[in-house]
Design brief:
The chain has 341 residues and is of the alpha/beta class. It has 4 domains: 34-99, Histidine-containing Protein, Chain: A, CATH 3.30.1340.30; 106-171, Histidine-containing Protein, Chain: A (2-Layer Sandwich), CATH 3.30.1340.30; 179-244, Histidine-containing Protein, Chain: A (2-Layer Sandwich); 261-326, Histidine-containing Protein, Chain: A, CATH 3.30.1340.30. The chain is 40% helix and 24% strand. The protein contains 10 helices and 15 strands. The strands form 4 sheets. Strands 1, 2, 3 and 4 form a 4-stranded mixed beta sheet that branches. Strands 8, 9, 10 and 11 form a 4-stranded mixed beta sheet that branches. Helix 7 links the parallel strand 9 (209-216) and strand 10. Helix 4 runs antiparallel to helix 5 (146-157). It starts with a helix and ends with a helix.
């Protein structure tokens, strides 16, 4: 009798051990090898026209990508960081790329940044102060929207000769909104995002500060979620506590979203209306089986491009026909030269 019990216990233990052995590979099924991550990161950098990948070295250890080398402008360093984070399996990026631009006097840098800000169709607020010290640009002042704050930083980073940008611009919203209104917009923004819809992200808001918790399958998704909700009106700050994890079924969409034509049209409208970089008042939208067509007009070709990108990132959109007309095309030669430089 005792012998039978022992055999029974052994059978149960063996069955449990076997189930763990079978389950273990499944848990790690989505894990990507470091060598594969490095290969695809290098490939992405080579195909990004904004980045000269010839001077960049990529190494990966346990899902963490380290970028070293040098580029000739600050924007290229940021774009390299972004491309690396998009690679499947990347848990994080250590960006040690140095910026070694051609020499340019601080007065030239300051004037170029000022002109770009003054000629931006996105930045309507006045009073942004620009200083430059040995290639380090400092932006100071107040604006009405977060999009203006980030646009000023982007414009400065793209100017030839800039090594670093310190952005201490403050956004002061003209209107007031409740935490619940902000939360509703944040949840809606994440659900519209083709990269994030249906993923296990929890949003909470207190005193206009958004906190994101949950888990995702990649570093790019974490950054993208934080960016999505920061664009919402009246948000003071975003605390991004999202975890990036390997495990299967963690941070993975359970089902494919398939919105109706009417729901897709509403989602596209909400996305365009939320983006303060685009005046969407003259944009008409058509949606049919995942195809979205934009008609009407916007202020500039820049707004047309941003509108098209906004629509492509909405969940359920398969392709976009952008028929928008840019109302203002003429620019002074010096302004065009600034953008080229």
């Amino acid at each position: 009798m005792k012998k039978q019990i022992s055999i029974g216990k052994f059978s149960v233990l063996f069955a449990l051990l076997l189930s763990v052995m079978i389950a273990a590979p499944a848990l790690a099924a989505d894990k990507v090898a470091d060598d594969d991550i490095t290969y695809w990161a290098k490939d992405a950098l080579r195909h990004d026209a904004r980045v000269d990948a010839s001077e960049i070295t990529v190494k990966t250890k346990k899902g963490i990508v380290t970028l070293t080398g040098s580029v000739d402008n600050l924007a290229a360093k940021k774009y390299a960081d972004l491309e690396a984070k998009k690679i499947n399996g990347v848990l994080g990026v250590v960006n040690e790329i140095g910026v070694t631009p051609v020499w340019r006097s601080d007065s030239d840098i300051r004037n170029a940044v000022r002109r770009r800000i003054l000629n931006s169709a996105v930045i309507e607020s006045q009073g942004i102060t620009v200083t430059s010290d040995n290639g380090k640009v400092t932006l100071l002042g107040t604006v009405d929207t977060y999009s203006e704050e980030k646009e000023a930083e982007l414009l400065a980073s793209e100017v030839r000769g800039v090594k670093e940008v310190e952005n201490i611009i403050t956004t002061k919203w003209k209107t007031k909104r409740s935490d619940q209104e902000i939360k509703n917009d944040a949840v809606a923004a994440l659900e519209r995002d083709a990269y994030l819809s249906g993923l296990p992200i929890t949003v909470s808001v207190k005193d206009a500060v958004i906190t994101l918790t949950g888990s995702l399958g990649g570093a790019y998704g974490k950054d993208r979620a934080g960016s999505d909700v920061h664009w919402i009106s009246n948000v003071k700050d975003v605390r991004n506590k999202l975890r990036v994890e390997w495990w299967e079924k963690r941070g993975v969409r359970e089902k494919k979203p398939q919105p109706s034509d009417n729901a897709l049209k509403k989602a596209v409208r909400a996305e365009l209306d939320q983006d303060n970089r685009v005046d969407s008042s003259d944009i008409s939208i058509k949606a049919s089986y995942g195809k979205v067509t934009l008609d009407g007009s916007v202020f500039s070709h820049y707004q047309k491009r941003i509108a098209g990108q906004d629509v492509r990132d909405v969940v359920g959109v398969g392709w976009v026909t952008n028929n928008l007309f840019a109302r203002i095309d003429k620019r002074e030669d010096w302004a065009i030269q600034d953008d080229i430089d």
